[in-house]
Write a structure and sequence with these properties.
heterodimer; A: mainly alpha; Cytochrome Bc1 Complex, Chain D, domain 2; B: about 425 residues; alpha/beta; FAD/NAD(P)-binding domain; disordered N terminus; binds flavin-adenine dinucleotide
C-alpha cells in the first residue's frame, strides 16, 4: 500500500473522510469512468446528446434501457452492454445535473 | 522525484490525524512533478490538458515540432475533395493558455536512467515522469524498393498534412479511365478501418468525377474491420468503381517501383499515376530510442497506468502502444491520455492507479452522408486490456438509410468533441 493510501486509511471513517474524497474526486472511480463518455458527448447538443441536460435518474434509466434492449443496434446500445449496473449508477450520479457536488 | 509534497510531509500529516484525511486532493494541488510529454497529437495533447487540471502546480512540458496539428480523422474526406484541410488543423494556443509549456522541437533521444530527453535544437530536459505519444513511423524497409524519399511519388497520406493534399491532387489530375491503386499493409497499423473508409470516398469521387476510372485495393489481409458493412456499401454504391483483392487473391504488395509508378504483387504488376501506398508501421522512432519498444516495433504497457513495462517512469499512450483489443484510434489515444494522466496524478500524490472501464467508437464514411461504426468496451483490470464480452460490435447490416445518415451526423459531432477535448 502506498503512503498516501495509508494516510487515508488511517483516518477512514473519521468525520472528515468526506472532505478527502471530494478533494481527490477528480481521480476517483466515477470521474475516470465518465472519461470514456466525454470523447463523444460535449455540452453542445446535436447529433450526439449533450450530457448537461439530464438528472441522474434520467441518465440511469436511459443507460439501463440501452443495456437491456436486446434488439438495440445504436452505438449506445453496444457500449452500454459493457457496463455493470453499479458502474451505470456511478456514471449517472457523476454526470447527472442534480448531483455534481457531493 | 522532486516533489515539494514529499514523503515526510505525508507521514507528518498522517500523524496529525484528521487533517490528513484531506491529503490526496491537496497532494495533487501541491505536487510539483516535472512531467514531459512527447507528441502533441490526440494522446499527448489530451494528457497535457488533463495533467494540468489534476496537478496545477506541476511543470507540464509538451514537445511537438509542428505549430499546427493536422488531424487524420476526416482527412479521407479531404482527399475526396469533400472537406477543406483547414478544418483539420489545430493550434496549441489553448494548451499554452492553460499553463502548459510547449517546446517547438523534436525529441531525438531519451536517457531512461538519467531521466533526460534530448532535443534536436534545444537543451536537454529532465523529467520525473515522461509520457510518449509519438504516433507512428513507417517501416520503409519492410517493402522492397520503397524508401522515405518516395512519399511524393507514392503518397501514404497516413500522417495528415501535405501528404493528404498530395494524394488529393493526384486524384484530381487523373484522366478519366485511369486506375487508382491503394496498397494496404498487414495489421497492426493506425486506424484499422481507415483504408476502407478512404477507398469508399475515393470510389465516390471517381463515380461522380471520373466515371470511367476505378480503384483497386491491394490488401495484405483477407479480413478487415467492418468488412461485411463495407462490402455491402461497395456493392450498393460502387460496383463499377471499386475492386478489393485480399491476400489469398494475390493482393499483397511485395515490391514497389516509384520511378515506374508501379507496384508488384507476387504474380502481377499495377501501374497508375495515382498510387497510395499505406506502408507497414511501427511506433514513432522516439519509442525505440527510449527503449520502450519491443521486437515488434510497438510498446508494451501496463494498462492500469500506461506505464512502459520496459523502463520505469516512462508512460506510452496512443498508436505507439500494444493495447489490443483497443484499436489504434484517435478515440483510444484521447481516452488513454486521460487514464494515463489520472494514473500519474495519483502516483505523484501517493495513491495507486485504480482499474477502470475504457471504450472506443470509430465511425467510417461509406458515402459523403452515410457512415458505419464499430464500438468496443474494455477492462484494464488484472494486468491486461480485455474486451468486455457481450458489449461492442458494429452497425447493423441492411439498415435503413436513416441509420447510416444518423451515424454520419454522429461522426461529425464526435470530431468536434474529440478535437475540443484534445486541443481545448
Ligand atoms: C486516414 C485516417 C483516418 C483516421 N480516422 C480516424 C477516425 O475516424 N477515428 C479515430 O478515432 N481515429 C482515426 N484515425 C487514427 C488517429 O489519427 C490516430 O489513432 C491518432 O492520431 C493517434 O494519436 P497519437 O497521439 O498516438 O498520435 P498522433 O495523433 O499522430 O500524434 C503524434 C504527434 O507526435 C509528434 N511527434 C512524433 N514524434 C515526435 C518526437 N520525436 N518529438 C516530438 N514530437 C513528436 C507528431 O508530430 C504528432 O503531432 C485515422 C487515421 C488515419 C490515417
Amino acid at each position: 500500500m502506498s503512503l498516501g493510501a495509508m494516510a487515508v486509511a488511517a483516518c477512514g471513517g473519521s468525520g472528515s473522510e468526506r472532505a478527502a474524497v471530494s478533494e481527490a474526486s477528480d481521480t476517483d472511480v466515477a470521474s475516470v469512468l465518465v472519461m470514456a463518455c466525454t470523447g463523444c458527448h460535449s455540452d453542445q447538443s446535436g447529433a450526439i446528446a449533450s450530457l448537461n441536460v439530464y438528472d441522474s435518474d434520467q441518465l440511469r434509466d436511459a443507460l439501463l434501457q440501452y443495456k437491456t434492449d436486446a434488439n438495440g443496434t445504436t452505438v449506445m446500445h453496444r457500449l452500454a452492454r459493457g457496463y455493470s449496473d453499479a458502474e451505470i449508477d456511478l456514471i449517472s450520479a457523476q454526470l447527472g445535473q442534480d448531483d455534481v457536488s457531493p | 522525484m522532486s516533489l515539494v509534497f514529499n514523503r515526510r510531509n505525508l507521514i507528518q500529516s498522517a500523524v496529525l490525524g484528521a487533517s490528513a484525511a484531506a491529503l490526496p486532493g491537496s497532494a495533487m494541488a501541491q505536487a510539483r512533478a516535472r512531467i514531459v510529454i512527447v507528441g502533441g497529437g490526440f494522446g499527448g495533447a489530451t494528457a497535457a490538458l488533463t495533467l494540468k487540471r489534476l496537478l496545477p502546480s506541476s511543470d507540464i512540458t509538451l514537445i511537438e515540432p509542428f505549430d499546427q496539428f493536422v488531424a487524420c480523422p476526416f482527412s479521407n474526406l479531404v482527399i475526396a475533395g469533400l472537406r477543406d484541410i483547414t478544418s483539420q488543423s489545430f493550434s496549441y494556443d489553448r494548451l499554452e493558455a492553460a499553463g502548459i509549456t510547449r517546446i517547438a522541437d523534436t525529441a531525438i533521444d531519451v536517457d531512461p536512467v538519467a531521466k533526460t530527453v534530448s532535443l534536436q535544437w534545444g537543451d536537454d530536459l529532465t523529467y520525473d515522469k515522461l509520457i510518449l505519444s509519438p504516433g507512428i513511423d513507417f517501416r520503409f524497409e519492410a517493402l522492397e524498393g520503397y524508401h522515405s524519399g518516395m512519399t511524393g511519388r507514392l503518397p501514404h497520406a497516413w500522417k495528415a498534412g501535405s501528404q493528404t493534399l498530395w494524394l488529393q491532387l493526384k486524384l484530381q489530375a487523373l484522366e478519366d479511365g485511369q486506375t487508382v491503386i491503394m496498397s494496404v499493409p498487414p495489421a497492426p497499423y493506425r486506424c484499422p478501418p481507415g483504408p476502407y473508409e478512404r477507398a469508399s470516398l475515393i470510389a465516390h469521387f471517381l463515380k461522380t468525377q471520373k466515371p470511367r476510372s476505378k480503384l483497386i485495393i491491394l490488401d495484405a489481409k483477407d479480413q478487415f474491420s467492418k468488412m461485411a458493412l463495407f462490402k455491402e456499401a461497395w456493392e450498393e454504391h460502387y460496383p463499377d468503381h471499386l475492386e478489393w483483392r485480399g491476400a489469398s487473391n494475390d493482393g499483397t504488395v511485395v515490391r514497389v517501383d516509384a520511378e515506374a509508378d508501379t507496384v508488384f504483387t507476387d504474380f502481377e504488376s499495377f501501374q497508375s499515376p495515382a498510387i497510395n501506398v499505406i506502408p507497414p508501421q511501427k511506433a514513432g522512432f522516439i519509442a525505440e530510442r527510449a527503449g520502450v519498444a519491443d521486437a515488434t516495433g510497438w510498446c508494451p504497457i501496463d494498462p492500469l497506468s500506461f506505464a512502459s513495462t520496459l523502463q520505469s517512469d516512462i508512460h506510452v499512450i496512443g498508436d505507439a502502444t500494444i493495447a489490443a483489443p483497443m484499436p489504434k484510434s484517435a478515440f483510444s489515444a484521447n481516452l488513454q491520455g486521460k487514464v494515463c494522466a489520472v494514473a500519474i496524478a495519483r502516483i505523484v500524490a501517493g495513491m495507486s492507479p485504480e482499474p477502470t472501464v475504457l471504450a472506443n467508437t470509430c465511425y467510417s464514411y461509406t458515402t459523403p452522408d452515410e457512415a458505419i461504426s464499430i464500438a468496443g468496451v474494455y477492462s484494464n483490470a488484472g494486468g491486461k486490456l480485455s474486451s468486455i464480452s457481450g458489449a461492442g460490435g458494429v452497425s447493423p447490416l441492411r439498415a435503413d438509410k436513416a441509420i447510416r445518415n444518423a451515424e454520419a451526423a454522429q461522426a461529425h459531432h464526435w470530431f468536434e468533441t474529440i478535437t475540443a477535448e484534445a486541443f481545448g
